[in-house]
Amino acid sequence: MTPHADLDVLIVDDDEAIVRTLLIGLKGMGCRTRGAHSPSAALETLRRHPADLVLTDMRMEERTGVDLIREVSMLYPHTVCVIMTAFASYENAVAAIKAGAFDYMPKPFGMDQLQHLVRKVSTLIGLRRENARLRDEAAPDWFSGLTSPASRALEGLIDRIAPTDATMLFTGETGTGKTELARTLHRRSHRAARPFVEVTCTTIAETLFESEVFGHARGAFTGAVKDHAGKFEQANGGTLFLDEVGDLAPAMQSKLLRFLDDRVIERVGGSAGIELDVRVIAATNRDLTQMVAEGTFREDLYYRLNTFECHIPPLRERREDIPPLATRLLHRALVRYPSEHPPVITEEVLHLLMSHDWPGNVRELRNVMERATLLCAGGPITPSHLPPALVAGEGAVATVKDGIPSLREVEEAHIRKVLGMGFSMERAADVLGITTVTLWRKRKEMGTT
């Protein structure tokens, strides 16, 4: 018995007595277990219940364990496969490893050997999960550093919904960060250790979409020489993100609706439904209610997707987020384009960024920061490193004469908001991206000293 054996294990053998013995032994080690007596039954079980470990016999009537491992490795790359056989040989071991097996166990073996295997697999999966956790921590959270009321309210909604399996619909203009927000929701959910699969509906040809997303059976069409798992099956146990869902063809809208209703998909050319455990997050920059009125988007699908709708405001409506986003995107650019002397954003540049209307939203800001990183060659970022149109004021905030706050008023409001959060002067200056001396001067100009 080991405290590390928190595993979901599937045992595959056509000998019922062996399956029963292994089920009892693995349960005693703390594993959650299921059994199957053929490769096809094993694959059907995996579709409904993803496993951490598949322990399979080599020789079975239907097909070999090597065949099963090859298919499991393709469909469920995070699952560890181990083959067991009474016909141990060097050739069999090589074939199993080439097919994707993690280990090879000659029969007969004792419970101590099985326990040693469970420890090894537990250690491997623990390392994988820790690596995934560290990658997630290194990746910027969508809300990191954002202080606008809109972002704070959105984070509150995400935190309430993330632990559930509710379908979500993100709406907003192009470039507002819907994909990163979907990833953030996935990372904050109980599915974080499972796959996050992204599908951009506009990048897959309509003739290929059904096969790519829902999969196809062998022989479904010319060239379909083997079964193919689509994006839904690849996301089993995790999250499927459908970006630009408003561009789905009517036939695909029907298939998506069926999954949302029944949690079942059907491969192209397949004869049986496949039950899956997948959370769906959708996003669009189109007005789905208008599309429903025009008859181009199914009303029933809209209401199924719209269990919870999150509208992401454009960047021009949450200008307080521009300074932290610019800093974050600058650091991201430096990962791609390292510099011995990391650049800094000057106050003049920050003023220009705050005054721009950002029609391309966060995506446009990202491109601007990448451009500046490349052009500044490690020195301070100045207006000369920004796109000419931005420096010329195209898309800038209107003046107070148009009934809209001036840049100075926007800056003062942002400074007052940060100061009102109870930070020390040093911390407030750091959040604002200016020096402490500059912050003291601005406070004096604002009459707050």
TrEMBL record:
Q: Which residues form the Response regulatory domain?
A: 8-122
What SUPFAM superfamilies does this protein map onto? Answer: CheY-like, P-loop containing nucleoside triphosphate hydrolases
- What domain of life is recorded for the organism? Bacteria
Q: Which UniProt keywords apply?
A: ATP-binding, DNA-binding, Nucleotide-binding, Phosphoprotein, Transcription, Transcription regulation
Sites where 4-aspartylphosphate occurs are at 57
Q: Start and end of every Sigma-54 factor interaction domain?
A: 148-374
Q: Does the keyword Cytoplasm apply?
A: no
The protein's matches in PROSITE patterns, at most eight in alphabetical order, are given as: RESPONSE_REGULATORY (PS50110), SIGMA54_INTERACT_1 (PS00675), SIGMA54_INTERACT_2 (PS00676), SIGMA54_INTERACT_3 (PS00688), SIGMA54_INTERACT_4 (PS50045)
Q: Which GO terms describe its biological process?
A: phosphorelay signal transduction system; regulation of DNA-templated transcription
Q: Name one GO molecular function term.
A: sequence-specific DNA binding
Q: Where is the signal peptide?
A: none
* Matches recorded under PANTHER family: TRANSCRIPTIONAL REGULATORY PROTEIN
Q: This protein is called what?
A: Sigma-54 dependent DNA-binding response regulator
| Annotated source species | Nitratidesulfovibrio vulgaris (strain ATCC 29579 / DSM 644 / CCUG 34227 / NCIMB 8303 / VKM B-1760 / Hildenborough) (Desulfovibrio vulgaris)
Origin organism lineage: Bacteria, Pseudomonadati, Thermodesulfobacteriota, Desulfovibrionia, Desulfovibrionales
